Each structure stands twice: as C-alpha cells, then as structure tokens.
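Carboxylesterase B
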Amino acid sequence: MFSALLSVILSAAAVAWTPVTNAAPGYDTGPTPNASARLNWGSCRQTLRSPADVPSAQCGSVAVPVDYNNPGGAQVQLAVIRIPATGPRIGSLLVNPGGPGASAVDMVAAMGPGLAGSEVSRRFDLVGFDPRGVGHSTPELRCQSDADFDAFRREPMVDYSPAGVAHIEQVYRQVAQHCLARNGQAFLGNIGTADVARDMDQVRQALGDDQINYLGFSYGTELGTAYVERFGDHVRAMVLDGAIDPSIGPIDQTVNQEAGFQTAFNDYAADCAHSTDCPLGTDPTQFVTRYHQLIDPLVAKPAATSDKRGLGYSDAITGTFNALYTPQFWKFLTSGLLGLRRGTDPGDLLTLADEYYGRDAHGHYNNSQDAFNAVRCVDAPQPTDPAAWADADRRIRQVAPFTSYGQFTGQAPRDLCALWPVPATSSPHPAAPVAPGQVVVVSTTHDPATPYQAGVDLAHQLGAQLITFEGTQHTVVFNGNDCVDDAVARYLIDGVEPGNLRC
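Tokens:
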C-alpha cells in the first residue's frame, strides 16, 4: 500500500521479548584485514531482493573485530554495496539511513535508480555499509521471535500504578537478559556508535580512499558526528540531515522528540480539518481530545481488523507515530482513525505499525527494533533513579498530550536502557568544531523525530553551515526538493557552501 521511509529514528519504542538459547553467535574468527586490503567486489544477487533494479551494483564485505581491544578475536562481516560513478569520479559517497538499525545497503540500492543520470551519480560511487549487527551484516543481532513480538504488541503498557510499573520493568528486564543470552557480552557491549565509527574507517580503507564523502540521515548524523570527531582528516565533505544533538542526554532527547511529534500531529490535524469528514473534527482545541476518544478504548478492547489480528492501543499509537514522519502517510492515518470512528476496519493503522516494526506480509520481522534498542542502550548512560523517569513522564504529558494515556500518577517505568546488562560506551558531549566547509547540516522546521533546534545546535557546535527546510517531515535531502537538493549537490561536487540557506 505504501513504501517504507528510508530514514527512521524513534524514542523508546515498544519492544518484544522471546526465550532464547545460549547458542554462540555465528562469528567469523578470521583475522582483521590489513588497512591496505581492498574490497573484492562481486554480484549482489545474494544480497538484494531485486538486483535487476540496480544492475551496476557491486557487493562485498569487510571483516572487523567485535572488540577492537582484541583485534585477533571474533570478527563481524560488514556488508557493503557500491554503485560505481558513471563519469569523472571524485570519490565515494557513503550513505547511512539512520535507525539505528536501518540497512544502508538497502538504502543505496533504493537511491541508485532515483539518482541515475544526476551529477551526484556521475561523480561519486554510492556506497553503503550495514553497521555491525544490522541488515545484511553478520552475525545479525536478534533478541525476539516473530510470535513473541506479535504478542508483545498486543500489550497496551499504560498501567503506571506501582504494580503496572513493576510489570513493565520486568518485561524490559526479560528483553535485556534475552538479548545478552542470545548475542553474548562482547557483541552486545560493542554494538554502539563508537565502534561503528571505527568500522566506517575500516570500510574507507578497504575502498582505497584517503578521504570519504558522507551523507547521514537521522541517527546517521550521530554516526557522522562521531566519525568526523575521530577521523576528521579522512572527511572531504559531510552532509548531516535530520540532526541529533550529541550534547544532550537521553531523557531530554526523548522529551524534545515527543514535542516534535506533537507539532507534527498538530500539522496533520489542521490539514485533516479541511475535510468535513475529518475523524478529529474541525475545532483545533478538540483535536487531542477527539484522538484520545478514538484510541483510548483500545486499551480494554482492541478493534477488529480484516486480518483477524486486531488493532490494540500500542499499535494505534505506533501507527500514528509512523504516519507523522511524512505527509505522504497522513491519508492512511485518517483512514485508520475513520475506521475506529465508524466501527469499520481500522486496518491502515495496523499496517502503519507493521511497516514501522519491520513486519512483512508473512509475519516475519527484520531486526531493526532489536538493533535500535541495542545501539541506543550503549550509546549513552541512562538514569536509573525511578524519579527521573516519573519526571520525564510529567514533562512529556505537558509537551505531547496526544501521546499520553490517563492521568499523571507520579510513577513511570524506567526505560529499557536503564536496565540494560552492558555498560554504555559513549556519553553525551558537544560536537567538536570541524574544519571550515567540512560539514553542512540540514534541518527541517517541523521534523517530528529530530526536531529543528537539534540541527541548529549541532551546526553551531561544529561551526558548520545550516540549510533550513520549511516543512513537516523527517529528513529531506534527495527527496525531491530542488532548493535543498541543488545546494547539497553543489556542495558535495564543487565544495560550494550553501550559506545559511532557507528552502
């Protein structure tokens, strides 16, 4: 019905659990390649679902150590794709779609046809590598089965009484322990951005490039910031779209993101109100109230859907969040809410939730949610004091009332990451300034997932120029806006800085 977004980042999303065995991950124990080793490119037939769509694509892999302090130990194989430049080559343009947990290999394969014939595709090899544990890289990070993920999504997780909070935290502990049992201490403890940045430099060396060009979306801006901080001499040009501010902690980041989704919800509701059949009505003061009247009853009784699974409260919220990433999805949110209002099939909300969670038509999930949680849990220390999370709940209710169920109780479950079984490998800190012209930041005024101010602040920390896009969507580069796309192409190809441009 609709295609997946290429760039995704969500706060503390619902996660699932599964009993798992203590089987060792399928590590390659071969040696790390020399820094001068080159990739051996081959066919993408075993990697891509539709290799004929990108006939010039080449695929390969780069081995890196699970633990850089033990380079001769277990290895992971990073999947890499390249679509070679068709004209005078400047170098490689590495792309990361975000998540964490989204596949850069799949993104490059999707971008290739759209950029075919452009100056970007003429001058750059388009390159993507899947971070450790993600996508086509091996071993794959997995924590839950399909059946258990489905079962978890049926839990509303809204009881913030002492007993309800204890239950939610016990579920999170199970998630954490099962991840540890299935993936092992070393793999889980070295899955974060600090190690992925080192992996990216191994990929650079395997490509044979002294300097790379980089386009990072959403979480990909966090990876790009970490890379330029450590390997700045190897960056020719970097574009960071949908920025994460590395200086703020996880609670503030979540609160800011929830406020961003409220802004996008308000934009959606105002647009919907142009129709007399809008499920939220036409009175702006009643949009949130009408929304809760439609979805809150799902806590006690899920709505029937044509596929017999039913739509519960958690999936209705998740489907709403997914729709707010782009106006292209608003019509599906309207359709789902109309189904709830009329007592007909609200299945589009369930489809939106499936699309976000990576569930296919056969009921199989990709591992994007497992990777998302594993990376964010080691990327920053999380407060363990329950009072900090109760205060976060209070703040979220103020800035994002459409997301809040019931009344404030003074209780709230701690985030999954506060219960994670391995320590953080990074901590919040301001980005270090970069060389003049080395980085350009792009930020969208009503970006729900990575709010505009984060881009402003990251640009200030880096000393980078900022492209502002006026819109309600998550990320914008090479998504059809000529003002943004032309400025980014000129910067990447000719080094022409955009100034503080507004599009």
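The radius of gyration is 22 Å.
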